[in-house]
Amino acid sequence: MKLLEVDGLSTHYITARGTRVTRAVQDLSFSLDAGETLGVVGESGSGKTTLALSLLRLLPPGARIVSGSIRFEGEDLVPKPEAEIRQIRGKRIAMILQDPMASLNPLFTIGDQVAEPLRVHEHESRRSAWNKARGLLEAVRIAAPEQRVREYPHQLSGGMRQRIVGAIAISCEPRLLIADEPTTSLDVTIQAQYLSLLRDLQKAHGLALIFITHNLGIVAKMCDAVAVMYAGRLVESGPVRQIFNSPAHPYTKALIESIPRFGDSNARLTAIDGQPPDPSALPPGCAFHPRCLQAMERCRAEAPPDFAVGADQTAACWLWASS
Amino acid sequence: MTPLIEARHLTKHFAVKRGLFSKSIGHVSAVDDVSFVIEPGHTLGVVGESGCGKTTTAKLVLLLEEPTGGEMLFEGRDLQGLDADGVRAYRRSVQAVFQDPFASLNPRMRVATIIAEPLVTNQRLTAAELQERIGHLLDVVGLPQRSASLFPHEFSGGQRQRIAIARALSLSPKLLVLDEPVSALDVSIRAQILNLLRDLQAKLGLSYLFIAHDLAAVGHMSTTIAVMYLGKLVELGEANVIAKDPKHPYTRALFSAALPIHPDDRREEIVLAGEVPSPLDPPAGCRFHPRCPVAMPICASEVPVLQMVEGREVACHLYPSPA
Question: Which residue range is the domain that position B214 belongs to?
Fold first, then answer.
């Protein structure tokens, strides 16, 4: 059995009067095995954060899962009542957000915040939860945990705060960890520290990881599989090597080619013209067609379904219709 | 050829004040004894993590901060000795493009007014001449003519950065200071702006001071790279020389922390321990020694000086001075 199976998921934002609908996530399907790492890549407005929030049922008011299913350990999360979701959230599925200062409460000590999930989910006493919190700080390589548990978030550096958030996330031994741009606010060498920490934690606990990022470098470094999102849809997915070696969708191809690299200082970068579309006013047909160099008549009229490109690789592009 | 900008032993200290009477309790050496040259038509790339002094260096070059020590030469003339007219002329020939185009453009001004502002304050042009200049500048940065009458909120991030570039170019400067010009932009847009900057450099013979934490982008854009750590220059040399074989342990760690461009692109992993220390209280000797994987006893006591090692300058005790 797969750990997570998302099938035909659509999440829409609907205005109060119901007059405007933004299709933030549209007909998305993917699956994840235990211990596997999936990278979800996309630009701002591609729906990757809405996807993460949908998986945890943490959507803001106005957003609704309109169709599809999210099967986690065999159970569909979409129809579950809030009380049951609360027992899964933070315990079986945990999340790390981009900005650690926003995800930590400035008024509580580090110890209180790391111990909180243990007290809520495992019903541990304050004393034993605090003892475990010290161990967790050690696990995320915080020096002098004895002293740090009594400190407040503002006393720590950005890298340390993000490690605290990591400690909170793994406190109840989740099966799935969703990391939404976890290193964007960190410096380069601190980012390297954090990524290697995440990888060690994943190995130690057999975690499945969903990495939400705009950075293909992180995907190349960390992930087994990739899902590329554009304007709310999955445009390509497959094993990471296959995608990097032979990207099938023109958008993926252009993204990979647009990364600057060393020793190419004379070459021009391959740029994608235009800009990502406004998710509330998507172009008809394939949403990428106005920027696509290989667009055909059909792309302007009809949205392409997923086509199988190779073993485990799919691309939503009419170029693959004949194969 | 006379270099466009020559910085000699540039130093900037900020006093740290505390208490009712703002008693000075010490200083932060944001930039400490930094020397570099920028040749006409070339790009100097500055890399380093937060707090390394790269933005202070940019401010010193822009004359937004007064140096505490050292001197700066512009086309061979000392800036310290310039009169008010000279300073004005210098400011005209050195312009800046900042990181966040959402913050650097006035939301209440139309694009034409934004681009024309430097012209109106510095040159006496007739309305017709002004119109023509604005039209020309929009053309140069690849924006449609009708943009002139629109407001910044009507543009995407990439287009706003083009407006900021057009404004910077309006006085036909010789040097552009680019402080993280693409970090706030979407991945598919970055390549567009980097290409535009390279085209402008080739066409107008501009020099760039390019500041970024993205090593690959700096490597792609620069002729010379300066690596900074806690206000000190640790390595300075030609971009491809440094990229091929970085010598300073910090530069090596930076390059190893840079994200791969392909899953098979495995490199030696150097994960630095600890965080960047506070610049208020920098370590004695070499400022990098507490985090350095190859630190020796001498590193804790003696400050290493820059010296030539295989075609570039390095400040590290690993490379004993020839004397």
Answer: 41-63+83-276
Residues of A with CB below 8 A from B264's CB?
Answer: 241
For the sheet with B69-74, list strands across it: B23-38, B5-18, B69-74, B77-78
Where are the domains positioned within chain A?
32-65+78-223
Chain B positions touching A256 (Cβ under 8 A) are 261
Residue B118's CATH number: 3.40.50.300
Would B320 be classed as within a structural domain? no
Chain B residues closer than 8 Å to A264 by CB: 220
Q: Is residue B220 part of a domain?
A: yes
pLDDT tens column, B176-215 = 999 999 888 888 888 999 999 999 999 999 999 999 888 8
B-contacting residues of A 39-98, CB under 8 Å? 43-44
The answer for residues whose C-beta is within 8 angstroms of residue B139's C-beta and 6 or more apart is B145
pLDDT at A323: 59
Q: According to the CATH classification, is domain A32-65+78-223 in 1.20.920.10?
A: no
Sequential DSSP letters for A146-183 = HHHTTS-GGGS-HHHHHHHHHHHHHTT--SEEEEESTT
Specify the number of domains making up chain B.
1
Question: Does the residue B33 lie in any domain?
Answer: no
Q: What are the pLDDT digits (tens) for A102-161?
A: 899 999 999 999 999 999 999 999 999 999 999 999 989 888 889 999 999 999 888 889
| Partner residue opposite A220 with nearest CB, options B215, B259, B269 | B259
Picking from B183, B214, B218, B220 by the largest number of A CB atoms within 10 A of its own CB, the best residue to mutate is: B220
Q: Complex ipTM above 0.95?
A: no
Residue B248 confidence class, pLDDT cut points 50, 70, 90: very high
3-state secondary structure of B73: strand
Cα Rg of chain A, angstroms: 21
Contacts of B225 in chain A (CB under 8 A): none
